[in-house]
Design goal:
This protein is α/β, with parallel strands linked by helices. It is 39% helix and 19% strand. The termini are far apart. Bound molecules: S-adenosylmethionine (SAM).
Length: 187
């Protein structure tokens, strides 16, 4: 009886997940949930200038693996994940609380969250979203903020470096050396 109830619950969760993914991708034109692998995350972290008391954002955090890896690397750091899908947010938040993580999860759209306190931003989104992300970081981020985007470049910004990790380009930006590219060149 309990087994059947558990199975039904899992099926309901999976159906809700599929419907919300469909809505997010097809209707809202947002990125689907695809998780960045540990090898990529560890390499990215090794390239970043991470320090205690910084604030790190993962925009469209999904399972927040990037933040979870940072948390294991530096204990005294502020970690904020932003995720718009209720089902992903709910399951991930539950999991993070169970493992005693201090990551703060926000159930919100990326574009509704202010990034003025961000020292580091990680995102793995969609090409269509990156122009808007560029406008947002130029408006809100302070000098020195490091921004990392997997696969998709930010057209208005000049990358500090581009590294290929596991066959995908990863773009590193730093707000103090940002050059606004008027032609919105695609990197
Ligand atoms: C490609 S996945 C990346 C997940 C995670 N950052 C990683 O690299 O493993 C993109 C995630 O961003 C979320 N997302 C897409 N557009 C969003 C938006 N506008 N606001 C908040 N979350 C968004 C999706 O639901 C999905 O979980």
């Amino acid at each position: 009886m309990y087994f059947l109830f558990g199975l039904l619950l899992l099926e309901i969760i999976y159906a809700v997940f599929l419907v919300s993914q469909f809505y997010n991708v097809i209707i809202k034109k947002n990125a689907p949930l695809v998780t960045t692998g540990q090898t990529t995350i560890k390499k990215i972290i090794s390239e970043l200038d991470l320090k205690e008391n910084q604030t790190v954002f993962e925009l469209g955090c999904g399972r927040a693996i990037f933040l979870r890896t940072v948390e294991k690397t530096i204990l005294k750091i502020n970690l904020v994940g932003v995720e718009n899908l209720h089902i992903i947010y709910f399951l991930n938040n539950l999991f993070l609380r169970l493992i005693g993580s201090k990551i703060k999860l926000l159930r919100n759209d990326i574009f509704a969250v202010n990034l003025k306190d961000a020292d580091i931003i990680y995102c793995y989104l969609f090409s269509e979203t990156m122009k808007k992300i560029g406008d947002k970081v130029l408006q809100e981020c302070k000098k020195g903020t490091q921004i990392v985007s997997r696969t998709f470049s930010i057209p208005q910004l000049q990358p500090e470096k581009i590294i290929v990790i596991e066959n995908k380009r990863v773009f590193f930006y730093k707000m103090e050396i940002v050059n606004i590219d008027k032609k919105a060149k695609k990197w």
